[in-house]
Every structure is written in C-alpha cells, then in structure tokens.
Amino acid sequence: MTSPLVVSAGVNIREVLRRSGLAPKKSFGQNFLDAPAICEAIARACVPDAEVEKYPVVEWGAGLGSLTESLIPRAKNLIAVERDRDLMPVLEELFKDSVAAGRLTLVEGDAQAFPLPGEPFILAGNLPYQITGQLLRRATEHRHHLVRAVFMLQLEVADRLCAKADDDAYGALSVFAQAAFTVKRLRKVPPGAFVPAPRVHSAVVTLEKRSDAIDETEAFRKVVSAGFGARRKTLRNAWAALGPRELLERMAAAAGTTLDARGETLTPESFARASYILAAQVPARDSTDADPV
C-alpha cells in the first residue's frame, strides 16, 4: 500500500518496496493497493464527512499504509494492525508524526486475535482471501459496537455478501452478514490497482449496522447452516437433523414457506422466524405432546 512518503515523493509501491528491500509475501496473501483515489473513497465510506473524528477506526492489515494515510485525518484515532513484522519499521518511519501526535497507533499483531474496542467503532481493511471468512465472522461477532465496516474483498466474496434470496451466489455467508448489517457493494476494483496484480477482480463493500439486526443465536446458526448444508435440497431434508417432522413443519410455516422449499429461497428474516420455533422447543418433550400451532 502507498503512504504519505510515497505520495509526497511521487513514487509508486514498487519503489517503496525496492527502497525497503522488501517483497510482497505470498504466504500472507499480500497485494498492496496502489490507487490513491480508491483509498480516499474507502476512507470516506468508512467515515463520512458528518462523522469526521467522531469514532475510533481499526484498520485490519495496514500493509504499507495507503489506506492508513487516508484514514488518519478522518478517524477520532486510528489503530492500524499489521501482522508482518518486516513492514512495521517502514510504517513507523512513514507515520512517525501521526504516531507522535497520538492520531495513530501501530500494532504488530494478528487481526484475528487483536482485541476490538468496547465502544462504538469503525472497521476497515483489505482482507486477505485465506482469512476473509474468519475476519467477517469477527465483524459480525462485534456487531453491537460496530458502527460500520468497509472492506476490500475478492469480487466473488463481495457478490456472496450482497446476494439476495434465490440468487446463485446467495448462501449462509449472505444470511449471517445481512442479519447484522445492511450490505452494499461500493465499487469494483481491477487487478491493476494492486502490486502485485492478483488474478481476480476485487470489490469494496460497506457493512452498515442494522438498527433491527437479527440476533445470531445458536438456534439461528443451526437453522441457517443446516439450510445451506446441501444446496438444492429441500428443507425437509436439509433440516431433518434439527428435529421431528412436526417441528420442521412449524418452522417452515413460521418462515412463510413449506418443507418443499429450498434454503436458498429464505431471507434472513425467514430464517430468524424459523429459529424462534426451534429455540422454543423443549428437548425433553415428545413431538406428539407439542403445543398446537
């Protein structure tokens, strides 16, 4: 990623890497974003003008600091987490003034484990493909304090996040994300915007906290996961392990459908209504003694 030094000196990412004696690491899935306009668009999506300096921002994967640079003037304070220790000296040099002023905290650590704020905050990052799922899970787990998240993702993953019921890309990931957030694709990003250029297109997505977010209970997770456990199977088969036939029929009715439907036709709200029925059951009771609908 670019940085204040890179911009002011008019050089590109390759030059920064050359001067630092570094190279992108395939093991870390490093593709450094080298597109100032895109970084600025991400920063504005993270922190709109009306919210400048209102919330702390956590950046997952600072890289060489291109997005970091754009976020610093907009965040109340910025915590940039980077797990590649070889990049830390470069970041510390590039942003020494912002660190000294208390505007930026640089942390060498793993985004999957770094503690997130216990107050309203914003997340940003260019997520490596191999841990995208884990980081999205972390975001949903912290939805109660998360104001919004803006991520750079592979286009395929972005499409899955934004997909609606009955779309080909719609799946469990879509449901879990949309249960907590309003998800929108901000823009597509071509491979040429990165160094090195990946083999796939990317996209920027925004996840805005829902005021009517669906609680991700154990029952909700079970109903959604089972619903997509074997695509194209009817709910009669997909939900079979969740309980007796009578219970499944009640769940389907609550979801506004029948057991002949497929999981990919249900909205997050439909899954939630089905999960309420599952959660309300008393495991010790025989299905023949169940209360009438």
Output the strand order for the largest sheet: 4-3-2-5-6-9-7
Structural class computed from helices and strand pairing: alpha/beta
- Oligomerization state: single chain
Largest sheet: 7 strands, mixed
- The CATH architecture name of the largest domain reads 3-Layer(aba) Sandwich
General shape: elongated
For the residues shown, what is the average pLDDT? 90
| Rg from Cα | 22 Å
- Helicity, as a percent range: 25-40%
Q: What is the highest CATH level, the class of the largest domain?
A: Alpha Beta
Q: What is the fold-level CATH name, i.e. the topology of the largest domain? A: Rossmann fold
Number of strands: 9
Number of domains: 2
Could you write a compact summary of the structure shown?
With 293 residues, the chain is of the alpha/beta class.
Please tell me about this protein's structure.
The chain is elongated. The chain is 37% helix and 17% strand. It has a seven-stranded mixed beta sheet, sandwiched between helices. The N terminus and C terminus are likely disordered. Helix 7 links the parallel strand 5 and strand 6. The longest helix is centred in the C-terminal third of the chain and has 13 residues. Helix 10 crosses helix 13 and helix 12 crosses helix 13. By secondary structure, it is α/β, with parallel strands linked by helices. It has two domains: 206 residues, Vaccinia Virus protein VP39 (Rossmann fold, 3-Layer(aba) Sandwich); 72 residues, rRNA adenine dimethylase, C-terminal domain (Helicase, Ruva Protein, domain 3), CATH 1.10.8.100.
